[in-house]
């Protein structure tokens, strides 16, 4: 019966005398009921035995022969119940030490640590950390071995997330619970994390340990941040990184930590992207001179790893072979140097010059012409060197490293050289491919030209090389012109006329049409469904929408119109007619008449009404006035333009001979202020498919009322012109209509062709 509601499945289970927790967890609506704070359900879930059983599902692996519900569904639902953040349930957990011991027993070394349950454990602990911060931190402070066990399991990403939040790399916790986090700064957390690089050979452990240290450099409290950036700690990092017996993943991930220390805003390539927002604490500025100095002490040993002469590893590729390949560790070293150069430390620049670091890196740039990762970092190094305020560093790049000569040499012979002693060798039996670093060389060359305009040293060195001047004039300028995407036509209709214009420029503001008006009317056109293929009822129904119910605003419409690249000739549009100014039509309100195949374009905002029409002779008399209005209107910018809808679809002007009087007459759009009247027609000529414009007088107010049938004007105006006996009076009031244009039909049939020719 109506008005009666049945109990939910959860309530049905709770009303039973003997029910189990498994029955509730198996019910699909339990999470919704929990979020809705179902009192009966919450009282059951807050009980200690219930909370204990929920935790057991999360921390204990299911038996091998257990059902899928016990293995997958019950642990998931148990985790979701805690993460619903029902305060009374979380309070029942965090205030009971026995239950907390059970929760953190998941970290015991003898337990299996599957990634599925580790994720559920992480979600519950993070929820407690956010909602019950002080009780949880007090519990962890009383059990410091929890931090050690978390670090031991740092190879599991979910455990790493818990560790990052616990050590203070979280905006919410640090800002509101400074006292609770202070004790962590006194622990040797950083040393325990760094020791994982020497005690484990697992790449996942190295990656997650480095990600944790990077999070500390960006978001940790000042105590931990200052400790990790100290020269002694950096020296410890490099000692682990340069140990020859360790895997290359140690070097790669520790260099990520050094990069984060030099540029805290630079995100590493790890999997933990939770903390990418701006915060008010932590180290967010540039690296300190002490940090840079600590890294320079190990720079010489680091550069020795860029030597490839001692390796004999060969990697086959589609273009040939690499002997040896560059390797991820060398690429990371070059990335580290690119960030070090960007710091703009004069001490670092002098050390780089002394060690010949930039020269060696550019040698690798040309030895590995298809490694775009390498090319990107080398380009950044070149730009940082050229923008340096140290003239010695700039001159070192241009003279000692012979940057200009290397660019010209690569441009002169842009194919891969067949030299078996080089690291990159082309495939045998095929023509040598083109080298793949020409694009980066072009950008470096353009940067040289740009900075040469403001730097006399760069300009002098460039002008000293006559080959550079010739190459810049004959090759670089032409290449830039060809590769300038802003000048590409991209298939635009007006590409031949506006080939030199940029689509992003604001040149449309200088045109002779009102973009704001066009934007407003385009918005109106979309609002009334002109461009849709819906049926007539849907189109007419769209007329009743609110003025605020639009598909896009005027700014969006302006962007659309400017992207269309409308030409200067506004007469080229076959569907839009510019109206005369409002001052010329102040005394009249023009209402055009058209059948279902015509589009009425007028200066008024009233919808077109469907009323009887006149004979074809009257329509031909209107063409001359319409043509004169268009001709005079093209001299001045139109006020605004509007599209109209009569039958729910876009209608175009007639394109064929309109001499057939048996069908609905095709008439040109009425200009503003013109009227169409019956001169010779009889009452019998008026049919249901013909329309006539309703005249209005200067002293009569404009009627903008709309009806449910599509917004026709007041019925009084219709009655005033529906009778043929009233037409002579109206004709007397408008004697200009008496003139007949003998070429009206010719204009109607040739109009589209002329528009196409103008376009």
TrEMBL record:
GO molecular function: protein phosphatase binding; protein phosphatase regulator activity
Record field: compositional bias (Polar residues): 602-612, 655-665, 714-728
InterPro entries the record matches: ARM-type_fold (IPR016024), SAPS (IPR007587)
Region (Disordered): 577-759
The family this protein is said to belong to: Belongs to the SAPS family.
Name of the protein in its database record: Serine/threonine-protein phosphatase 6 regulatory subunit
Naturally occurring in which organism (per UniProt): Sesamum calycinum
């Amino acid at each position: 019966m109506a008005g009666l509601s049945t109990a939910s499945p959860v309530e049905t289970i709770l009303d039973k005398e003997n029910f189990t927790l498994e029955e509730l967890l198996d019910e699909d609506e339990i999470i919704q009921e929990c979020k809705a704070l179902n009192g009966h359900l919450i009282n059951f879930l807050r009980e200690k035995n219930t909370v204990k059983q929920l935790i057991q599902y999360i921390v204990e692996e299911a038996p091998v022969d257990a059902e899928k519900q016990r293995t997958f569904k019950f642990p998931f639902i148990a985790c979701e119940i805690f993460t619903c953040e029902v305060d009374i349930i979380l309070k029942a957990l965090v205030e009971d030490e026995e239950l907390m011991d059970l929760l953190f027993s998941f970290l015991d070394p003898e337990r299996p640590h599957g990634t599925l349950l580790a994720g559920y454990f992480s979600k519950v602990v993070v929820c407690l950390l956010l909602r019950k911060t002080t009780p949880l931190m007090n519990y962890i402070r009383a059990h410091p071995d929890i931090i050690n066990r978390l670090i031991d399991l740092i190879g599991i990403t979910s455990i790493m997330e818990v560790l990052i939040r616990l050590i203070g790399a979280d905006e919410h916790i640090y800002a509101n619970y400074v006292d609770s986090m202070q004790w962590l700064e006194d622990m040797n957390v950083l040393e325990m994390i760094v020791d994982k690089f020497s005690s484990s050979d697992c790449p996942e452990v190295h990656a997650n340990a480095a990600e944790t240290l990077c999070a500390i450099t960006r978001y940790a409290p000042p105590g931990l941040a200052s400790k990790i950036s100290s020269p002694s700690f950096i020296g410890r990092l490099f000692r682990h990184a340069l140990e020859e017996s360790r895997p290359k993943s140690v070097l790669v991930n520790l260099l990520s930590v050094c990069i984060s220390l030099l540029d805290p805003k630079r995100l590493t390539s790890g999997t933990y992207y939770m903390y990418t927002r701006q915060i008010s604490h932590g180290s967010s500025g540039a690296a300190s001179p002490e940090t840079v100095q600590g890294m320079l002490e190990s720079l010489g040993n680091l550069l020795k790893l860029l030597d490839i002469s001692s390796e004999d590893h060969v990697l086959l590729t589609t273009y040939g072979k690499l002997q040896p390949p560059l390797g991820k560790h060398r690429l990371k070293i070059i990335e580290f140097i690119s960030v070090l150069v960007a710091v703009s430390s004069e001490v670092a620049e002098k050390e780089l010059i002394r060690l010949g670091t930039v020269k060696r890196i550019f040698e690798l740039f040309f030895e590995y012409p298809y490694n775009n990762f390498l090319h990107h970092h080398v380009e950044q190094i070149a730009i940082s060197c050229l923008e340096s305020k140290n003239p010695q560093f700039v001159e070192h790049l241009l003279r000692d490293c012979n940057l200009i000569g290397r660019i010209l040499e690569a441009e002169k012979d842009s194919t891969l050289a067949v030299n078996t002693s080089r690291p990159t060798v082309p495939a045998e039996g095929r023509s040598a491919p083109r080298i793949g670093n020409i694009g980066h060389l072009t950008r470096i060359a353009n940067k040289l030209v740009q900075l040469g305009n403001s730097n006399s040293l760069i300009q002098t060195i460039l002008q000293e090389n006559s080959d550079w001047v010739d190459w810049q004039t004959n090759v670089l300028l032409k290449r830039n012109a060809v590769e300038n995407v802003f000048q590409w036509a991209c298939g635009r209709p007006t590409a031949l006329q506006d080939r030199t214009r940029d689509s992003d420029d604001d040149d449309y503001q200088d045109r002779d049409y009102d973009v704001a008006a066009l934007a407003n009317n385009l918005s109106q056109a979309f609002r009334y469904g002109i461009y849709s293929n819906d049926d007539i009822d849907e189109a007419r129904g769209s007329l009743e929408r609110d003025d605020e119910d639009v598909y896009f605003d005027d700014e969006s419409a302006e962007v659309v119109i400017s992207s269309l690249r409308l030409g200067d000739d506004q007469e080229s549009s076959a569907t839009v007619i510019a109206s005369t100014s409002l001052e010329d039509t102040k005394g009249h309100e023009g209402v055009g008449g058209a059948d279902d195949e015509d589009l009425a374009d007028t200066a008024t905002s009233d919808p077109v009404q469907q009323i009887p029409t006149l004979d074809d002779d009257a329509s031909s008399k209107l063409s001359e006035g319409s043509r004169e209005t268009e001709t005079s209107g093209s001299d001045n910018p139109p006020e605004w333009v509007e599209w109209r809808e009569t039958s729910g679809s876009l209608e175009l002007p007639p394109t064929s001979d309109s001499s057939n009087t048996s069908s609905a007459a095709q008439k040109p759009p009425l200009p503003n202020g013109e009227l169409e009247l019956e001169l010779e027609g009889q009452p019998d000529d008026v049919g249901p498919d013909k329309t006539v414009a309703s005249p209005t007088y200067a002293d009569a107010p404009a009627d903008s009322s709309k009806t449910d049938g599509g917004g026709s004007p007041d019925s009084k105006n219709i009655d005033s012109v529906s009778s043929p006996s009233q037409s002579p009076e109206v004709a007397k009031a408008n004697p200009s209509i008496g003139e007949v244009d003998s070429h009206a039909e010719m204009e109607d049939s040739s109009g589209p062709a002329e528009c196409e020719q103008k376009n």
